[in-house]
Amino acid sequence: MPYADTEAMQEFLDRFSDTIADDEHVAMFADRAGWHIAGDLRVPDNITLIQLPAYSPELNPVERVWLYLKERFLSHRLHADYDAIAEAACNAWNRLLAEAGRITSLCSYPWILKVKP
């Protein structure tokens, strides 16, 4: 989505909610970005947002994914427009996916491995 705001978050939650089976409930971690905690946000009944403590990137596995993407594929580059930025991000993501086991290695914090599904 071209914006990170409450409207985009609402759209994400609504669409994600539609993919959850009737007998399932999802607990989703969220950092304290304004659009994750906005009063206007309507979290669907089949999702619970669990707010991470402020200033705790070590608890958010996606921070390591973003760092990896920025360091290897996205930093120190200029892009002509939004479409070029989106294309660069998609290319970086696809390169990451092509590296077998990379996401697991980036996101496998010791505390995550102790959580029982």
In words, what does this structure look like?
By secondary structure, this protein is mainly alpha-helical. 49% of the residues lie in helices and 9% in strands. It has helices at residues 6-18, 34-37, 62-74, 82-98, 102-107, 110-113; strands at residues 26-30, 47-51. A two-stranded parallel sheet has the order 1-2. It starts with 5 loop residues before the first helix and ends with a helix. The model has no long low-confidence stretch (mean pLDDT 89).
Topology, element by element:
Blueprint: H1 6-18, E1 26-30, H2 34-37, E2 47-51, H3 62-74, H4 82-98, H5 102-107, H6 110-113
Parallel strand pairs: 1-2
Helix pairs in contact: 3-4
Number of domains: 2
The amount of helix comes to 40-55%
Strand order of the largest sheet: 1-2
Shape, per Cα inertia axes: globular
Compact description:
By secondary structure, the protein is mainly alpha-helical.
Can you give keywords for this protein?
117 residues; single chain; 6 helices; two-stranded parallel sheet; globular; 2 domains
